[in-house]
Amino acid sequence: MAKKGKKYLEAAKLVDRSKAYPVAEAIELAKKTNYAKFDATVEVAFRLGVDPKKADQQIRGAVVLPNGTGKTQRVLVFAKGEKAKEAEAAGADYVGDSEYINKISQGWFEFDVIVATPDMMGEVGKLGRTLGPKGLMPNPKTGTVTFDVEKAVNEIKAGKVEYRLDKAGIIHVPIGKTSFEDAKLAENFNTIYDTMLKVKPAAAKGTYVKSVTVTTTMGPGVKVDPSTAAVK
């Protein structure tokens, strides 16, 4: 394991590792222990009681955070004709078809999210080996394969985040920046936690939410008591 720096160790002393903090307190503490000189990302990690190896316990989707993420996503849309015009009008950064497929195959990645109309997926699918490992492949579950390109672009620009269960049974989601007001981070946290409860697989047994942790890019993890979340 990599040796922790002096600043990290100083910050970690402020966190009681045996305690799960109320949401507001956890967010306040995560911000307080952030020693990065840049506007760090605040992230939440959910350790879930599901088996990532089983198809009926996969969790993947997307949710629009009420206060966005603090990052403007660059959107590439694969579409033709009227749908391409719709994407441009909605504010997509790049719109096209074969020319962008060629650019990506040659190593171009000046975008954060891809949206594709279903009729384009035959072509986009050829980039599977390139886009798949980077988590950039459009997917109907996250609303990025759709004919409603206007809605897809608007939601991404408004602060839509994708979530996906990893091999260790953990979901990592950004909920904003350290420059955000605590209340806005808490509202984003509550939205994503509420979503996690709603997407619980029917096949999941035992304790579903095992632990919830809030961290900043370089700061220590702060455990959250999920019972203090304001869920609908």
UniProtKB/TrEMBL annotation:
Signal peptide: none annotated. InterPro entries: Ribosom_uL1_bac-type, Ribosomal_uL1, Ribosomal_uL1-like, Ribosomal_uL1/biogenesis, Ribosomal_uL1_3-a/b-sand, Ribosomal_uL1_CS. The keyword Repressor applies. GO terms for cellular component: large ribosomal subunit. One of its GO terms (biological process) is translation. GO terms for molecular function: rRNA binding; structural constituent of ribosome; tRNA binding. CDD domains: Ribosomal_L1 (cd00403). Belongs to the universal ribosomal protein uL1 family. Part of the 50S ribosomal subunit. HAMAP family: Ribosomal_uL1_B. NCBIfam families: rplA_bact (TIGR01169). This is Large ribosomal subunit protein uL1. It comes from Bacillus infantis. The gene is rplA.
